[in-house]
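name: query_chain
kind: protein
chains: 1
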Amino acid sequence: MSNSKPLFVMGSKRSGSSFLVNVLNLHPQIYVTHESDIVWILYQIYKDLPARFHAYPLDEGKGMWATLNKYGETLRSIPPGTRDKKTVIEAFHRVLKAINETGRGGWDDPQKKKDLAWIGDKKPVQYSDPEIQSFLTDLFPEARYIHLIRNPKFVVASMMDAAETWGGQSVPEYWRETPQQILETWATHEEWVLQVKGRLPDKVHTVRLEDLAEDPVRTMSEALNFLDLDVPSGTFHARGGDFRFEELISSWTWKHPNRRHKSFDLAVSPRAHRIMQCYGYED
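structure:
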């Protein structure tokens, strides 16, 4: 059994989770994949769902197909409907460690990290979904979660912008709805997170995108402390030079992530307002 513990990034889409994963992966003992969908694949196997894998209902499934295309032989070797938790847990670690070693074309570059303390995936909505949460709690009770949140005004604006400008790329259908409908979906997903935080208060750490952009070193130091990790000492060779870890984090900073949609106006519902207050956001 692997010594690495499971780590999952959750929240709402268009909140900056890809940026967060890139920063987390600067640490030599953390490896998080970009939407490998490993849990959703294993969930379908464990629940003995139809033989043909299908995308998560609120997703387009591109990450899942990329994983199955490269590691499908390993995953399809698990008997559908197996109740052997050890087999499923070992497959989780085996596939993610293989991605760490060899990559996943167009999604994850090989990093070949050794002595990983944490290994996991980011799927912002999935990992707070009550049904998936039940599966995770059952198989990975030791898992921890980093919850990324962004002011919903800019989440909604970003979803609408993507629905209009991504051309042939598929997007979740709810991104094409009215601003108020999208906001209500955001509220649902964040209410799922609050439920997880209520059940597992010591296993969820919230990061605001705005704080990560404004003060990345402090924000990441707090996240590493949550994961029982120290800020690495010494220097790292990356991006054509040698950097201290703090310098490397600062070099990845996403300055002013909300500036593009600053003029977007959104009427905030009482439901969304209550969630925003939990994280210090103003209407």
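note: DSSP finds eleven helices and seven strands in the chain.
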